[in-house]
Amino acid sequence: MSKSFVNKVLLGGAVAAGAAVWAIAPRTFSDKRRNYVPAVPDVWYAHRGLHDAGSGLTAQYANESGEYVALARRMAMKAGYGSPDTPGVIAPENSLAAFAAACEAGYGIELDLQMTRDGEVVVVHDGDLMRVAGDPRRIADLTYDELTRIPLFPTDAPGACKAAPLPLALEEPPLVTTPDNAPEGYYQHVPLFADVLKVVAGRVPLIVEYKFDDNSKWDPRDVELMEKGDALLQAYSGKYVIESFNPAAVNWYKENRPEVCRGQLSWWPYGEDKPTDPVALGKEYAAGALLFDWISRPDFVAYDWKGGNSPQVKLARFMGAVPVSWTVRSRDEYAQCCDQFDRHIFEAFVPDEQ
Fold first, then answer.
1. Does any domain span residue 73?
2. Cis peptide bond upstream of 38, omega within 30
3. Cα separation, 97 vs 17, whole angstroms
4. Are 118 and 216 spatial neighbours (Cβ–Cβ below 8 Å)?
5. What is the CATH number of the domain that holds 121?
6. Residues 6+ positions from 222 with CB-CB distance below 8 Å
7. Is the per-residue pLDDT at 8 higher than 60?
8. Which residues contact 156 (CB under 8 A, 6 or more apart)?
9. Strands 121-123 and 108-115
10. In a domain, 305, yes or no
11. Largest Cα–Cα distance in the chain?
12. Torsion angle of alpha carbons 130, 135, 139, 141, nearest 10°?
């Protein structure tokens, strides 16, 4: 092997390493100081609020989730939602009751923004209502008025992780329609982001995630969500940071609101959640390696808790990005990742520190 070849290999490796460091680098300290950027508040963040039905409440976490569900219900009732006589779910994920419960318990909140067919900014995670309401219709195809008449977890017991399908929901095509009138009795529905901000009222800090159908695309409707969501946040006096899986959304804040603390969401693709399309999978791996951070130059990296020991997260942390874990669902998971992250998004267990 010639000396020239070895030198070329070493040079190529150095260039590749330098390019990776440049790509992963977060916002500079001087940029933060110039724009008076606040840090991510140091609290535990309740994933989609403190909820008694929804995300994370699977059999895998049953040993600890009962205590969590009981706390969610107590705190929701303390805030004026439901009562001991309420037979079903009181505080489903991403509901006003779940956010009020988190505030009563003193937890920060992580929540998700999408936009309805009539352009209202609402708080909901999935692109459709199947998991949380048994209704297969998409958020983008429904008006907010319709959403107010669709109960979350309408027939489910506390602790349910998935709503039972509505009648005709599993037909091909689905034949579910919105009722003409609101259901009787107590229920929660997908809320307006404006109403969530009124309920929280600055009592706890927020991590606000902007959600999109395709994180590799960017269209006028996506820009509309950014503009409307940010307008609501500009009128809000409480503490908040923003995040997204879509680098273009985080870049929107870099370009338009540099004074806001911004975060890049990511994960390393594995298991059944990996895309099957090779091109899409390649993009996911690149995003998981944080190679698109050059677009957003984030202040924090919100990463799947299993990836806290990865080289890219360690490097981002070394260069000044705050690592935030998602979503920790047990004391054991917290013990595995607590040294690798500075902030934590949790559900399905009650942190000992609280």
1. yes
2. no
3. 48
4. no
5. 3.20.20
6. 212, 246, 248, 249
7. no
8. 53, 88, 89, 163, 164
9. antiparallel
10. no
11. 81
12. 140
Q: What angle, rounded to 10 degrees, do the helices at 96-105 and 193-200 form?
A: 20
Q: What is the rounded CA–CA span in Å between residue 74 and residue 297? A: 40
Contact predicate 126/107, CB 8 Å: no
Let me know the angle formed at the C-alpha of 201 by 182 and 181, rounded to the nearest 5 degrees.
5
> Mean of the pLDDT values across residues 66-79?
98
Mean pLDDT of 340-347: 98
Closest-CA residue to 71 (of 44, 104, 42): 104
pLDDT at 32: 97
Contact 178, 142 (CB under 8 A): yes
CB atoms within 10 A of CB 25: 18
Could you tell me if 171 and 192 are in contact, meaning their C-beta atoms sit under 8 angstroms apart? no
Distance of alpha carbon 108 from alpha carbon 50, whole angstroms: 10
Q: Which residues contact 38 (CB under 8 A, 6 or more apart)?
A: 239, 241, 261
Say if residues 286 and 23 touch (Cβ distance below 8 Å): no
Average of per-residue pLDDT across 82-102: 96
| Residue 114 DSSP code | E
| pLDDT at 242 (0 to 100) | 98
- Residue 301: how many CB atoms within 10 A of its CB? 25
Q: Is 35 part of a structural domain of the chain?
A: no
Contacts of 14 (CB under 8 A, 6+ apart): none
Read off the tokens for 30: 């001087």
Instruction: Give φ, ψ of 58 to 5 degrees.
Output: -100, 170
Say whether pLDDT at 6 is over 50: no
Query: For the chain, how many structural domains are there in total?
Result: 1
What pTM does this model have? 0.94
Question: Is residue 96 assigned to a domain?
Answer: yes
- 235-279 tens-digit pLDDT: 999 999 999 999 999 999 999 999 999 999 999 998 878 888 888
Domain enclosing residue 56, as ranges: 41-272
| Tens-place pLDDT, residues 333-343 | 999 999 999 99
How far apart CA 249 and CA 135 sit, in angstroms, is: 28
